[in-house]
Amino acid sequence: MKSIVLAAAMVLATAPFAAADSPAPAIPGSFDPIQRIFVPAQPQTAPAAAPVSVAGQVSYSFAITVASTIPTSTPIECAVQLTHIGATGGVYFESASTTATRSGTKANCTVKVPYLWAQANNQGFVQPQITLFAGEKRQLVHTLAPFLLPGNNQTRSFSQTLRF
Asked: In the chain, how long is the greatest CA-to-CA distance?
């Protein structure tokens, strides 16, 4: 009887390990017999994007509610900055600004940023940043979500509602 109980205990004790008998997924690499270590294979990287020349324009329209104590005689400037990392690692930076039209607590402006990037990365992103400033005492800066580089000779338009 003891041998039956012992045999049953051995079967039950090894049952959870039955799945462990299947081979583990292989890790690509090789064994270095001189150093006696396993050297994992280096991951393959995607080929670098070929540089392309791209021109276009990004347009931002701002609808601004003036909530701070900016005098109506103080102009509000709207600015847009674009940053793009080109295919060869160079950084492109473009910016433009304009003065908003004001009426009481409302202001509006549209900023158009043309660009011409000779070594752009057609798989890369454009990182926009918008800035509002009034005189020397009030400024607002927002870094917005990046977007894919538009195709050549295209205009990408955005609208922003801001409280300033």
From this structure: 101
87, 146 in Cβ contact below 8 A? no
Q: Is 15 left (phi over 0), alpha (psi -120 to 50) or beta?
A: alpha
Domain boundaries, the chain: 2-40, 51-163
Per-residue pLDDT of the chain (164 residues; tens, 9 = 90+): 555 444 444 444 555 544 455 565 666 777 777 777 767 776 655 556 678 899 999 999 999 999 988 888 999 999 999 999 999 999 999 999 999 999 989 999 999 999 999 999 988 999 999 999 998 889 999 999 999 999 899 999 999 999 99
| pTM of the complete model | 0.68
Which residue's structure tokens are 């701002």? 62
Which one-letter amino acid corresponds to residue 143?
Answer: T
What single string gives the DSSP state of each residue in 44-99? PPPPPPPEEEEEEEEEEEEEEE--S---TTS-EEEEEEEEEE-TTS-EEEEEEEEE
Whether 117 contacts 84, CB under 8 Å: yes
